[in-house]
Specification:
Elements lengths: L1 E7 L8 E7 L2 E6 L4 H12 L2 E2 L2 E7 L5 E6 L3 E2 L3 H8 L3 E3 L7 E3 L9 E3 L11
Parallel strand pairs: 5-8
Antiparallel strand pairs: 1-2, 2-3, 4-7, 5-6, 6-10, 9-10
Bound molecules: iron/sulfur cluster (SF4).
């Protein structure tokens, strides 16, 4: 099976537009990349596309109601929605440290979801 896919390399701000020729399920040729990282990205993206997960969870006991979170590493692209769904019922209590694990092994990916910043507990009312 042969075909051509187009994708944008996301490894640097150049954002090269890649033309990827696939033959028998394998990447046979990559054009448009201005450095070797583009070809490596095209091959990895064709074989196992991955994405970072970014979302928010409910936060109790702080001056803000939402805590921004992200995956500690990219997860398989087809698991991103499952990870976001798994975060829906999650609520955490302040204080929260930056990098704290909010949801371990999100959606069975083996990747933890962590806080992207620390949040202090709200000062008690005077
Ligand atoms: S191919 Fe190289 S130069 Fe182009 S976006 Fe990717 S990393 Fe940047």
């Amino acid at each position: 099976m042969a075909g051509e896919r187009r994708m944008t390399c996301i490894n640097c701000p150049m954002g090269c537009e890649l033309a990827v020729r696939v033959e028998n399920g394998e990447v046979a040729e990559v054009k448009g990349n201005q450095c070797p990282r583009g070809a490596a990205y095209a091959k990895a993206e064709s074989a196992h596309p991955v994405r970072m997960v970014t979302s928010t969870v409910r936060l109790r006991g702080a001056d803000v109601a939402q805590l921004p979170v992200k995956s500690a590493a990219p997860v398989p692209k087809d698991k991103v929605r499952d990870c976001v769904r798994a975060l829906k019922p999650v609520a955490v209590d302040a204080p929260v440290a930056a990098g704290a694990v909010i949801l371990a092994d999100a959606a069975g990916t083996g990747v933890d979801i962590v806080a992207t910043r620390g949040v202090a507990r709200a000062a008690p009312d005077a």
